[in-house]
Amino acid sequence: MMTQESPPKEATTVAGSTTEPRRADVPLRSRAALRWDGLGVTIAAVALVVLAGAFHPTFILPGNLFNVAQASVYIGLLAVGSVFLIAMRELDLSIGSTFGLTLTGSALLMSNGVDPWIAAIAGIVFGAFLGFNNALIVQLIRIPTIVATLATLSVYRGLALGLSQGRQVTGLPRNHPFFSIIGGNVLGIPVSVIILVLVIGGLVLVMHKTSFGYRIRSIGSNPEASEYAGIPIDRTRMQVLTLVGALAGLAGVLGLAFFSSGDPNIGCGYELQAIAAAIIGGTAMRGGRACVTGAAIGAFLLATVTAALAYFQVPANWNGFATGAVILAAVSVDGVLRQRKRLRSRR
Question: Which of 6, 20, 45, 321 is deepest in the core (most CB within 10 A)?
């Protein structure tokens, strides 16, 4: 018995053409771009740059945008490190203090005659040690990471103030190649921005192409199932906290090369900005999803807000309000995109 064929699912116009393309007709790269977790913050950053450039054309000149990128490097390094922790449902509140302590410590070494290159390496290693110390506290006392790092936030900041006697560390050998190279430019691009891009590339590979990154995302997705499957949660947390500390140390070294002095108060509040940049960049607080590149773009977005306010001659007292508003806008755009993605997947 012959059966009648069902009509095609896609709607057709009078002329017979489809009103919307089939999913198979959509290029794979386009679909991947729409699924990218950092799309929302990228749209927000581009929109803000274009809006500022419409009123002040000099804002979108390459030189100024590189200056904004330079200002975002330190938060960016802290944010991409925070991605690894947030993906595990953890938070490190001491990264801003670690940044300030490593910058101050490296400056003290240089001011006492230590070769700047050696002092810089010592700063990065010291940052890794501070992160490892956070991990030890979590492991030994068995308290949540957010509680342990809330304590070390004050300990590390107090140590920076105590070592420097509450004053800026000056008298550094500014004519040393360390400051001209690390604090300089290559073809108009700040070296610190180049280093950030290289770090991002390496961390993206680590997160998505290694078993280490797989363990992080698995733990964040379902800690109980990961433990049952034999994934070493404690060891992975220790490794991630050490990595986060090393990145904070690297940020401190880059900051020292740029500012050429050690301020023990620098980095106050950076931890919250880094966490905000990671979250608006597409890393889920509930864990299991990470977007390293989106976190760096989130840091650039926050730096763009500050730079745009300066161009519009808005008093600095409004920085916090404007930053919060932009974060809310970026999260809203991201929420709309995710909702559309969910609706599309149900069709």
Answer: 45
